[in-house]
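Hi support team,

I'm filing this because I wasn't sure whether my run with succinic acid finished correctly. The job status page said complete, but I'd like someone to confirm that the output block is well-formed before I use it downstream. Pasting the exact inputs I used:
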Amino acid sequence: MTLNVRKRSGALGATVTGIDLSEPVSGDLLKKIMEVWNEHLLLVFPDQKISKKEHIDFSRNFGELEVHPGGKHVLKDYPELLWLTNEKDAEGNYLSLRDGGSIWHSDLSYMACPSRCSLLYAIDVPDDGGDTEWANMYLAYDNLPKELKKLIEGLKAVHQFDLADNPRFHPPSSMTEEDKKGSIWEKKSAEVKARTPDVIHPIVRTHDVTNRKALFVNRRFTTHVVGMEESEGEELLLELFNYVENPENIYHHCWSKDQLLLWDNRCTVHLACGGVPEGQLRTMLRTTVRGGVPF
Ligand code: SIN
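And here is everything the job wrote out:
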């Protein structure tokens, strides 16, 4: 099997063809995928007809799979699969999480061991909207002014799961408790909160494979800088987010059905751009692979 690799943007991303992900992946092929992935950070595998089990099996090549700590929105028979959909039942209730990922983030950065990578498979793709963007956190770090690099050296930040605890965001005033169901605004239960205490990570982490430095902060989960006054820390974080979200760092992806995307959460952040018109369906299934403690 020969892999074909085509770069997708100056920032990150490559398309990989010449592989059928419904088949087990052999040692050499897997090694090649890892090399290409470490170089491009995000891989797009188009036209993959894979079952839920095959999605899980392929994901296991990258490490131990996680069950989303939110405890909801996972498939009953395959709890390793997070179900992201705007589909509703006959009563008009959302079947699962409709707006997951709609603020820049790195998956599960609020855990002591954040996700190493994620594998998102497109089941239903709308005609309009529903794109996703990724930012390259190596580049974001490399492009910081020298003084800012010096300032953040050794600094740490708090990451929190519950959006209601994040002082940066507030639900739209028109949103009722009922509207919050199936949304990122849904209140986390005491059990989920106990499972996801706040964690502290370095603001700059070193990738355990490439040894490159990457920024490791995101708008969704990073709430405070340790040892700084709240307003001073927020000012610093907002400045860093601006470097992260510089258009030159970003790859914008328009989905096609049956694409599987694999990305590295150690050196990228991503955003579900939304904008899906009412009545159009968007359904994705995602696995995440447990990573190590950031250093
Ligand atoms: C995610 O945040 O992992 C999901 C992104 C998307 O649905 O586009």
